[in-house]
Amino acid sequence: MALIERVTRLDQTKAWLGEIPIQSRYTVGIAGERFFREIQEHGRFLGTRCPECDLIYVPPRLYCEACFAHLEEWVEVPTTGYVYTYTVVHQDLDGEPLPEPRLLAFIQLDGTDGGLVHFLGDVEPDQVRLGMRVEAVFKEKAERRGSILDIVHFRPVKG
């Protein structure tokens, strides 16, 4: 299949089995680095606020997507939010069954115009509801490495 042909059926896709001998380096950029460093060092979230649109971006950005203003104001945002949407995952990326289903959700963070895709925990699949209030659960500080995986999961807010 040529690169410009459109895949219309799953059996048309191809996978590379084994290792691809490529070396590369991925960077999260200036905004991402500050965001993940804040999680690692303080167990909290930062966003950037647009002075023109009054939007608060999480994950943070350096430019507003609406008006292209340069974003220089960093604000601490809550580690709480609500389940905007979710799915129950039964297979891994190779199509193998998971030992237990995993819950993956988009969490709309309180007071922001954005959110994070992450796992839900401390809740059964049949208990999850759209709009359910959740909070981030972070790894212990000594275990954090400056990545999205420093957040163990989001769990329902009690009370």
Q: Overview of this structure, please?
A:
The protein has about 160 residues and is mainly β. The protein has a single domain, classed as OB fold (Dihydrolipoamide Acetyltransferase, E2P), CATH 2.40.50. It contains 1 helix and 8 strands; from the N terminus they run αββββββββ. The chain has one helix at about 30-40, and strands spanning about 45-50, 55, 75, 80-90, 95-110, 115-120, 135-140, 150-155. The strands form 2 sheets. It has a 5-stranded antiparallel beta sheet with strand order 6-5-4-7-8, with no helix packed on it. A 3-stranded antiparallel beta sheet has the order 2-1-3, covered by helices on one side. The longest helix is centred in the N-terminal third of the chain and has 14 residues, at about 30-40.
How do the helices and strands line up, and which of them pair or pack?
Blueprint (H helix, E strand, L loop, with lengths): L28 H14 L2 E5 L6 E2 L15 E5 L2 E12 L5 E13 L5 E6 L12 E6 L12 E6 L3
Antiparallel strand pairs: 1-2, 1-3, 4-5, 4-7, 5-6, 7-8
Structure keywords:
mainly beta; OB fold (Dihydrolipoamide Acetyltransferase, E2P); 5-stranded antiparallel β-sheet; 3-stranded antiparallel β-sheet; 159 residues
Mean model confidence by pLDDT: 92
Radius of gyration: 19 Å
In N-to-C order, the SSE pattern is HEEEEEEEE
Structural class: mainly beta
What are the low-pLDDT stretches, counting only 5+ consecutive residues below 50?
A: none
**CATH class group:** Mainly Beta
CATH topology: OB fold (Dihydrolipoamide Acetyltransferase, E2P)
Strand percentage lies at 25-35%
Strand order of the largest sheet: 6-5-4-7-8
